[in-house]
Design brief:
- The protein is built from seven helices and 19 strands.
- The chain is an alpha/beta fold.
- It folds into two domains: 143 residues, FAD/NAD(P)-binding domain, CATH 3.50.50.60; 93 residues, 2-Layer Sandwich (Alpha-Beta Plaits), CATH 3.30.70.
- Strands 1, 2, 3, 9, 10, 11 and 12 form a seven-stranded mixed beta sheet that branches.
- The structure holds flavin-adenine dinucleotide (FAD).
- Flavin-adenine dinucleotide binds next to α2, β10 and β18.
- The site of flavin-adenine dinucleotide has 26 residues, from α2, β10 and β18.
């Protein structure tokens, strides 16, 4: 069945619903013959990890698709790193697991501390006892690198990201979805027909909003700060180290590259003061206050960022 769907949550199966405003748009466009427009089987909106995975998997199965992205270039900020054991199995099916593991830092365990005392040690190697698990470890790779690997795979399959292509509106017709795109780099418009349109357009999804799907959940009260740094300390570079303290949590996650680590700290919202901006000096203080680490020096910071975390999911997928 042709239709529009949204990839902002776990999989679920619902019948296609056409909200009233889309019906209105369809009527508004009566008399506008869209039958001659360029067509594709699937229009993938958004070239983040979700959209790129979908486009690669469609092409692998011989299903024609176009993948559009409103930005004019890949995002330089590393954002997420963590790749789970199960995701490595998916990457194997996609044919990119060797490439990912060659460039990633392998993660064999997780440690939880209070000050200098280790409370919990999780050894991912124990997963190897279950012979159905082919990758008994995780991996750490900046999102920028994972997205580049997906993009190269997509190009090898004969498709490519259409940069500077923003979805601004869409509506359902009997046998297709009609989508209006804007190309901000030259101010031009484009209208295309697709058998399916899939919203992989992130937290502020125009697809979700146009379909009127609720995005239920909560926003954490506080900010997460992160920085990628060099750290000359003795902690195993094959494991994650996490501290719980009265000041808040501090995570240190190994990254590719000798002594390279992602530091992430949660700073709860306090009405009396603003959450400070991520900086090398601030993380040096967090290491001292939260991990009682007084000798390691954080150097060469990149990917400094403050952001809020939402725990939300759409209530229906199509
Ligand atoms: C600063 C920061 C740090 C983060 N750190 C972590 C972390 O440490 N750990 C973690 O697990 N996660 C982290 N995340 C979250 C992680 O990056 C996201 O979960 C992930 O990117 C979601 O992938 P996605 O493909 O669903 O959406 P996105 O990566 O958001 O991709 C959606 C894409 O759609 C495009 N788009 C949007 N609207 C349109 C439109 N109308 N037309 C065309 N294109 C459109 C956007 O430009 C974007 O490229 C972080 C996020 C940020 C912002």
């Amino acid at each position: 069945m042709p239709g529009c769907s949204n990839a902002n949550s776990a999989d679920s199966h619902h019948l296609l619903a056409i909200p009233h405003d889309i019906e209105k748009k369809k009527r508004r466009n009566d008399g506008f013959d869209t039958g001659y427009l360029p067509t594709t089987d699937v229009l993938v909106v958004g070239a983040g990890p979700t959209g790129l995975t979908l486009a690669c998997e469609l092409m692998r199965r011989g299903i024609r698709c176009r993948i559009i992205e409103q930005s004019d270039a890949p995002m330089p900020l590393a954002r997420t790193l963590g790749i789970q054991s199960r995701t490595l199995e998916v990457f194997e099916r996609m044919g990119i697991v060797a490439q990912v593991l060659r460039q990633a830092a392998r993660v064999d365990g997780n440690n939880f501390y209070a000050g200098t005392k280790r409370l919990v040690h999780m050894d991912f190697g124990l997963l190897a006892k279950d012979h159905s698990i082919p990758y008994p470890y995780g991996a750490s790779l900046p999102q920028t690198t994972t997205e580049r690997i997906f993009t190269e795979l997509l190009q090898a399959s004969g498709a490519d990201i259409e940069w500077s292509s923003e979805l601004v509106d869409f509506w359902q017709e009997d046998d297709a979805v009609v989508a209006l795109l804007k190309h901000p780099h030259d101010g031009s418009d484009e209208t295309i027909r697709a058998r399916f349109l899939v919203g992989c357009d992130g937290a502020h999804s125009i697809v979700r909003k146009t379909l009127g799907f609720p995005f239920e959940g909560t926003t954490y009260e506080g900010e997460t700060l992160h920085a990628d740094v060099e750290l000359d300390w003795k902690k195993s570079h094959h494991e994650i180290h996490r501290w719980w303290s009265g000041f808040g949590q501090l995570d240190t996650v190994p990254m590719p590259g000798e002594q390279r680590w992602r530091l992430a700290a949660f700073v709860p919202a306090a009405s009396s003061q603003e959450v400070p901006r991520a900086s090398r000096e601030l993380f040096q203080r967090f290491l001292h206050e939260r991990a009682r680490e007084n000798t390691a020096i954080a150097r060469n910071p990149t990917s400094l960022a403050n952001f809020t975390i939402n725990r939300r999911a759409v209530t229906q997928m199509r």
